[in-house]
Amino acid sequence: MAWPSVDRRQWLINFPAILFIFFALAVSAEDIFLDWHVTLDTSIKPASVDQPVIAINGQFPGPLINGTTNDMFHVNVYNEMDEPLLITWNGIQQRLNSWQDGVSGTNCPILPGNNWTYIFQFKDQIGTFSYFPSLSFQKAGGAFGAIRVNNRPVIQVPFLKPEAEFDLLIGDWYERSYKEVRSLMSTKSMAYNSTPDKILINGKGAYLVPPTEVHESLNVTKGKTYRIRISNVGTAWSFNFRIQNHRMVLVETEGSYTNQITLDSLDVHVGQSYSVLVTADQTVSDYYMVASPKMFNATDVNKFGIGVLHYDNSTTPASGSLPTGPDPFDQEFSINQAKSIRWNLTTGAARPNPQGSFNVHNVTLSQTFILHASIAEIFGLPQFTVNNVSYLAPDTPLKLADQFLNGSGIYDLDKFSTNSSNVESVRGVFVATGTHKGWIELVFQNDLEDMDAWHLDGFGFFVVGFGTGKWKPESRSSYNLYDPVVRSTVQVYPGGWSAVYAYLDNPGMWNLRSQHLKNWYLGEELYVRVYDADPNPAKERPPPSNLLLCGAFAPFAPGAPLAPSPPAAPPPKPSKAPSLQTAAGKVSHILVYLNML
């Protein structure tokens, strides 16, 4: 037999330990079952005004999802609202299983009065993430929450175990119904120029603004160190976070352990998550925690998120001036901080091998997408666009059409360019090919006057570069290809660009979108189809047995039989929409197929 390239005797000595680790990794996963009742609640009043809030099991924010690498979650979502609902799991990669991604391109919505169970795995992931509703501007109404993916016990974490962990879900908030805000998005002033009213911390208003308002407080013991998981669950504002008289050690972002850097404040952009360590090393007292908006002239502290770090036995309220952060318009500070966030190459994460064993030092790119975000009026309505295309969601989810209609009549693959802008502004179903097991370079060019942030479902990407002005091929000379951090959401500064690399080893239909809610709602998104022709379910999961049908299949209720569908081939170029007879035949096959699962 071929022995490993180490001393044979040493290998035999270490074999029991290797066998123990292998066994521990194999048996540690659990199945976790959750029931979520999603309702509109008018009693919560996070902004001290009358407005409906989307609650989960009566909670706002929603319940914490707390699991460990490779745990399997079964989340049964009961939609008790008055409109369709989907929940997406921001940063959870849904390995080989985009059927569970919870966006319009992968799932039929859960209709009012109905329920549906998501079944997904924290496959080979650790870290800090969030979830939120993906349809109809609902994120502005709530239903968001924290996700923790903990390391397995056999994996060494690159810092001492903290005394405790806290989740801070921080985000901007409108002091009116999300439905009202949504309805006003058909006006240019609201679509392009409106801003939220304040920042909430864990669904609570600012400390002492007004004095009767409920605020967030974290209880700590002097001398102890705590892990604070911070997520921006807002709709529009980046924020700068800081704690009065305390420094933070950055250790993780969206599933990647970082080189540890000590910070006075941290910029967190929409959709992003971080972990910091904070040591209670000050005099016993209370101290301000502040989240202030970026790229916004917020002289009114009523717009700030303000909470309290409370030391045990403290009788001294937080006092003095609020801790100051960087100038909110200091783009150079923010970019330099972003560039300082580097991947820890030597530590393990979800697996015992070092993170840096998979890197971008010498990769060969298969594709480059250059995606321009801009605005346009189309048929008299304000839209956000990608390469001058505003996404138009079809009634039939792309994944469903891909599986059972080969996409025919629902979308035309690669109809729109991923490297140049369409001559005219149009609305369309923008689906692009992603080369399976190829490296893709994504360049996000922000032609807007405001911050933006881009997210790719299904993957973590390497953030290799930021720049001002227009991206050019020569810009690659400024890339960090040694230790770029891996995450799933990257900020893009006004008038600038950001570049990432991703390895497309996860077949499926994956949403590539702006995390800014009105941008996303008004069309700044597309889908990347990563296709593997191998029908082996180990390569990509088949449709779930509880698959919901809608769109082209809407006239047919689940329950009647269907035959297994052959593996989907790449969809054809433009074709006629399927007739009702054709769709009926396809549905009969689908239902037989589902009954066989």
From TrEMBL:
GO terms for molecular function: copper ion binding; oxidoreductase activity. It comes from the Eukaryota. Keywords: Glycoprotein. GO terms for cellular component: plasma membrane. Pfam families: Cu-oxidase, Cu-oxidase_2, Cu-oxidase_3. The keyword Transmembrane helix does not apply. The keyword Magnesium does not apply. InterPro entries: Cu-oxidase-like_N (IPR011707), Cu-oxidase_2nd (IPR001117), Cu-oxidase_C (IPR011706), Cu-oxidase_fam (IPR045087), Cupredoxin (IPR008972). Residues 44-152, 168-313, 398-533 form the Plastocyanin-like domain. Belongs to the multicopper oxidase family. PANTHER family: MONOCOPPER OXIDASE-LIKE PROTEIN SKU5, MULTI-COPPER OXIDASE. This is Monocopper oxidase-like protein SKU5. It comes from Pyrus ussuriensis x Pyrus communis. The lineage of its organism: Eukaryota, Viridiplantae, Streptophyta, Embryophyta, Tracheophyta.
